[in-house]
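#random but structural
TW: two for the price of one
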Amino acid sequence: MSGGHDLRHHGDAEVRDGAFVDLAVNVRTGTPPPWLRARLAASLTGLAAYPDDRAARAAVAARHGVPADRVLLTAGAAEAFVLLARALKVARPVVVHPQFTEPEAALLDAGHSVGRVLLDERDGFRLRPAAVPEDADLVLVGNPTNPTSVLHPAADVTALARPGRLLVVDEAFMDAVPGEPESLAGRTDVPGLVVLRSLTKTWGLAGLRIGYVLAAPETVAALAHAQPLWPVSTPALAAALACVEPHALAEAERAAGTAAVDRNHLVAGLTRLAEAAGGAARGPRVVGPARGPFVLVRLAGAEAVRARLRERGFAVRRGDTFPGLGPEWLRIAVRDRATTDRFLAALAEVL
């Protein structure tokens, strides 16, 4: 708990106790695809040997056009947050909220006093660089941000960079944005830039744990020094290698395009429900424009609505565990149109 927010509550907790239609976890459905499962199965013949990450690091580096010494493979992006908190000497870390809460939790666990910058709902949760304290020596921001689904312009994010400051950008959902237009992965001209990427969302590998860090070689070396030996398993390395191949990148881009269409369908349905309820003051109000594979919704009586949806077999993510939000917020994952239509019908009954 921090400031009344349960920073260690995540979407998976919403679906543990029961058979629910999962709109709480932002992992793409129908994954991992058969070709990726086959690659993972083939890697099992090498389990007797200790993991060797050189080929996977080189592949990730080539995917982003950077040298391999700017890449660190991690057991999911969550490990990277712990490494940043423990390995880097910072005195004034600041997290931009609402945002994935694990980075702040990791910083607090490492003994840091963490500052918060709360983005404003009235401003559409847009990033305003001037709101970040000038003396912050580590600034962490998500792009697109979980849970708001806001995609910040790259220029606004890079405006946070300063000599002597680490600028950590969590791009865990950037590959779900068609074309990745505001990504900073591969940029080497931004001082102190650290970009975090996850392969668990698009490829359905949350149970395998694989992600990576892109940063200056000295930052990568400091983080690597804090890792245990062989932190990424052989199957996870096989996944990293497979998921940055050209055919996989093309599949991810197609999936991102499909998700954008499905998200528009969800937003349109929620907007119709708001109109039927007499406007956003009473019905669901969607934060927009949403660009991630989820939407953030403000809804009067959201806690009761969430409970009644569970009775009907649908799990959505509560929003009150995110600093800057309260009990009237819900996060809803984007699913296919048929699933969304069934969810919208259930929500209409509840409302």
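TW: number two ↓
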Amino acid sequence: MAVFTPLTETQVERFLERFAIGTLTTLEGVPSGTENSTFFVTTDQGRFVLTLFEQGESDELPFFVALLDYLDEHRLPVAGPVHDRDGVALQELAERPALLFPRLPGRHPESPTLAQCRELGDALGRMHKVSQRFEGQRPNPRDLHWLASAQHKVMSYLSEADQRLMGDEIDAYQGIFGDASHLPQGAIHGDLFRDNTLFDGDRLGGIIDFYNGCTGDLLFDLAIVVNDWTSTADGNFDDARYTALLGAYQARRPLTETEQSLWPVMLRMTALRYWLSRLLVVYVDPPAHDLTPKDPSQYRHMLLKRLEHGAPPLPSASPSPSHTL
């Protein structure tokens, strides 16, 4: 269940009067999702996605709107929010902040093909290249400072071995990264898992759900993607996916020497980031709605694999898909 605030057709019909997108023909609640209420809205002029924001800081929503507008203007595969007749995107509906988006084509890939990995790597490389010029600012809420402070909330739930593992890793990150301002910065997605993309066959239909978006290390964003997109069920890398995604990415934005040297550690840090955040959901801050938390052990196991095996060599840049710009 992901419609936490039901809407009537009458409510949505009145809401749509603010926009020049036609009149409502169908309204459908979307059952997937974990935090916000989502609806598919079809009018006589097109298909849209309506999101009601159920939690989080509403004063951060203008950042997300500005970021999506910026990426859309630069022809990235994102859904720029629909603006009303007065040029305003951020609305209110049912006493909730609301945004309306064009509905992008495709489905979430469960087991990405090599072509899909290349597509995603190419799009992320393009996004990171242009996002370095985005003027908006929102600090990364899951950066190294957060890891260092949040670890203490879960220590009592861990075995002694896992307490040492987590504490030693975070100490190592602080020693290695320290002042990470020397890493290339820009606007990042912050949570670009497979289920935050849509593919029509092997073609990327769009990147969605930017609500973990922020400004920070581009390498942090890339490591999140690679850990999810190119890992096998046992936590190791699928070498072909790894090469396809990173080769396409580097064709758009080659990693600096510093990024290359810190790459294996960043893969470890982002694995620990999800181990810790999932532990917090299970033991400290359960979801507000009746949802099943994700298994923290997946990313604990991945972290151990990264410590044991490191990272494969970074591939050289490979040609970008011919249809992208």
